[in-house]
Automatic annotation (TrEMBL):
The keyword NADP does not apply. Residues 1-72 are annotated as: Disordered. Keywords: Hydrolase, Lyase, Nuclease, Nucleus. This is U6 snRNA phosphodiesterase. GO terms for molecular function: lyase activity; poly(U)-specific exoribonuclease activity, producing 3' uridine cyclic phosphate ends. The lineage of its organism: Eukaryota, Metazoa, Chordata, Craniata, Vertebrata. It comes from Gorilla gorilla gorilla (Western lowland gorilla). Belongs to the 2H phosphoesterase superfamily. USB1 family.
């Protein structure tokens, strides 16, 4: 039995975002569709008013120590909502048992590795939405998702890859409607198991991944454990979650 391949990879930063959370296209020169650029002037809010609502003007403080050393891909701005489209994976006890074997072995190579708190497969990059775009964005996603059947996937998708490309294609169309960054070209789909601060690919590639793969291949139940019955696509925007059921 050949179970799903294990891979080591690093996250990449998103493209620069304009103030409205839209992707800026070099040489485009356009602003909103059909509108001419208008000068903007922001008047300062009196301190007496700001003191009435502490923390609401500038938003939450970016403190990487509260997130295990992770740093935002793009800076927080009031009214901007980080948004991500993905397929959730509800980990069963047997899967977590397998992970409890894999992670300590990987930590002998990269001790700072930390287990993921939740598991998913990404269908989009993290993008920025203005608050008033969230519902239209989600409605457009739902309209694109209604025709898709459920499928099974592995740790790295080797079966069902074409169906995931179809899902990404529909998500990309919505991204383009809102002038946002689309997903990667020729993507591979992974279920992230652990993470660490910094690029540790050199320590993980080669011997470490081979040993981890041997553990997965040697598990009698790996083929079943690493399948996911995909019933829905989710969109997380800020602290809001939206679910789009598949047929």
């Amino acid at each position: 039995m050949s179970a799903a391949p294990l891979v080591g990879y690093s996250s990449s930063g998103s493209e620069d975002e304009s103030e409205d959370g839209m992707r800026t296209r070099p040489g485009d020169g356009s602003h909103r569709r059909g509108q001419s650029p208008l000068p903007r002037q922001r008047f300062p809010v009196p301190d007496s008013v700001l003191n009435m609502f502490p923390g609401t003007e500038e938003g939450p403080e970016d403190d990487s120590t509260k997130h295990g050393g992770r740093v935002r891909t793009f800076p927080h701005e009031r009214g901007n909502w980080a948004t991500h489209v993905y397929v959730p994976y509800e980990a069963k006890e047997e899967f977590l048992d397998l992970l409890d074997v894999l992670l300590p072995h990987a930590q002998t190579y990269v001790p700072r590795l930390v287990r993921m708190e939740a598991f998913h497969l990404s269908l989009s990059q993290s993008v920025v939405l203005r608050h008033h775009w969230i519902l239209p964005f989600v409605q457009a996603l739902k309209a694109r998702m209604t025709s898709f059947q459920r499928t099974f996937i592995g740790l790295e998708v080797t079966s069902g890859h074409a169906q995931f490309l179809d899902l990404v294609s529909e998500v990309d169309r919505v991204m383009e409607e809102f002038n946002l960054t689309t997903f990667y070209q020729d993507p591979s789909f992974h279920l992230s198991l652990a993470w660490c601060v910094g690029d540790a690919r050199l320590q993980l590639e080669g011997q470490c991944l081979q040993e981890l793969q041997a553990i997965v291949d040697g598990s009698e139940d790996a083929e079943v454990l690493l399948r996911v019955h995909t019933e829905q696509v989710r969109c997380k925007s800020g602290n809001k979650f939206f679910s789009m059921p598949l047929k």
